[in-house]
Amino acid sequence: MGVSHSTGACVxxxxxxxxxxxxxxxxxxxxxxxxxxxxxxxxxxxxxAPRSSTSKNSLLTLHWDDEYEWKGPFYFIQGADxxxxxxxxxxxxxxxxxxxxxxxxxxxxxxxxxxxNKLNPKPKFFVLCGDLIHGMPGSQWRKDQERDLKNVLKxxxxxxxxxxxxGNHDIGNAPTRETIDNYCKSWGDDYFSFWVGGVFFLVxxxxxxxxxxxxxxxxxxxDVWLNEQLAVAEKHKCKHIIVFQHIPLFLRxxxxxxxxxxxxxxxxxxxxxxxxxxxxKAVFSGHYHRNAGGSYRGLEMVVTSAxxxxxxxxxxxxxxxxxxxxxIVHRYYxxxxxxxxxxxxxxxxxxxxxx
Length: 355
What we know:
This protein has one domain (63-352): Metallo-dependent phosphatases (Purple Acid Phosphatase, chain A, domain 2, 4-Layer Sandwich), CATH 3.60.21.10. It is built from twelve helices and 16 strands. It has helices at 12-25, 64-68, 86-92, 103-118, 142-153, 168-171, 177-187, 207-210, 216-236, 265-278, 335-341, 345-352; strands spanning 2-4, 29-33, 37-39, 45-47, 59-63, 74-79, 126-129, 162-165, 192-196, 199-203, 240-244, 282-285, 292-296, 299-303, 317-323, 328-334. Strand 3 (37-39) and strand 4 form a beta hairpin. Helix 4 packs parallel to helix 5 and helix 4 packs parallel to helix 11 (335-341). The longest helix has 21 residues, at 216-236. It is globular. It starts with a strand and ends with a helix.
């Protein structure tokens, strides 16, 4: 899995020099830490929260060209909103201060990890689309919730990389540079890109599109970076482009009214237009704690329900996403279904097809 990231506009000549030096020095090798380390666009190693504070981080070394090329069907697992603390807070009707217990979320996330570990063949990665914990920045139980979630996630099979997406509870409804920096220290960069088997993946900080009033310069930096990444994708003629973010662009219809669970209309329209022009096939999100989705001019919006607290009629679960030459196919499974039955034959047959 090849990875790149930039938290802002690089100083042109210096960044170009570093990139050229890296390409010549390591023969265009990208070093990816399977214990959640990534290499940034300008060559800086960024710690993405090792699963164990005592384990030695093994290195998985991949050639750029290995990941640019389509190698045949593969799949990944998408989850969202483990949100340690919300089940208790929702039950007592106090979502601000009622998150002092999260035993149920621990059990559910353990079940999710166990279900993913049992899958055969193994997924290419396991992405969590935001709201990792319920405690907002500065809240009383935040550190304890983070600690317990990491303790669960470190049991994920070492051959299955974890990808983290920032949600509003991770960086705040109106994030600041400080809250984003703190998130990055705990979970890794708030936006980045990576390649898997000829498919280009973009992880975005959707909160910057929801309310960037306290850090407008960071939204601008992400916008510049996104344009750069889409240009990279066009240059390399990737098989598909897939986006991960926490807040859905929309829940059902592209022109639906704005509310807490989607992006404001004008912002949404601008992003959808850019994504359509770039040929992005799908956006996977969470936030809604229910399954939903729709489409816009060939762009599929996939809204996945929660591992943790449910706000509708769905069941705690995960989404299996199969990427083939021609299409992206996904199924939502309850944790019980995935644990006991695994993937259905139709999806396994898709994976078995040769290039």
